[in-house]
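Please, is this right?
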Amino acid sequence: MSQGGRAEEMAHLRRAIAQIEAQRPRQAHAPILLPLTRALDRALGGGLAGDALHEIAPASPGDGAAAMGFALALAARFMAASNGAGLVIAEDFAAFETGAPYGPGLVAHGLALNRLVFVRTPDAPALLWAMEEALKSGALNVVVGEIWNSKPYSLAASRRLLLAARAGRAPALLVHGRAFGRANDLASAAETRFEIAGAPSVPVAAAGGRLGLPGPPVFAARLVKARLRANAQGPPGQALDDGKIMRLEWRCEERRLRDPAVSLCVADAAGERPRAQATR
């Protein structure tokens, strides 16, 4: 076939594909929102978007595990809501620095190992590429990435991740392992950014011992960035008060976050005071 014949055939194929795409009905769908807690849902306009890029940064060098634990808690929430699969990608140096995921610990954290795929990449560019391709595939319900070298992570790279999440309708959760204390300084196209620190959990009474057992994991979370939706409370483009730290308790068996109320001492009612004095 001559060059002119090939060019004419390719043009014909392009026109045919364009006609098919034009005839295909376009389905408008509402954004997927995952409820988290009452305080966060008010700031996020109903919940965490299931087709966007979300960033998590540790508050201090010792909070890397807490930041990853928070990201995995969100991943467990997304996987439970859609009964789908997830992908966890880690840069090699991040895994060497903070350790590899521990299977029984992930199960105890609320994650199903038979619906998780783990990937290691040699460097940050490979991690970003793998996340982008996984998101665009549309085969996953959540993609978690742990990056250590943030230099290749530019505004353009974050924009590509956001567009891939939109295309595949799956959230991207990116943990910046080395960005401790710099959550406010990151510049990206992410829809939300959290700064996470570990917090003391409420001990659980042991069956036959004096020492209490560790309670559910607790995160001290600060919402640094939120591109608010129309129904969110507060002016557009702003998040919660930057200084406000929320205490979030992760209920692994229920796969949900709680913002527990603070216990306060309450004065006795007037009718109860004589009885209380008589018993003293």
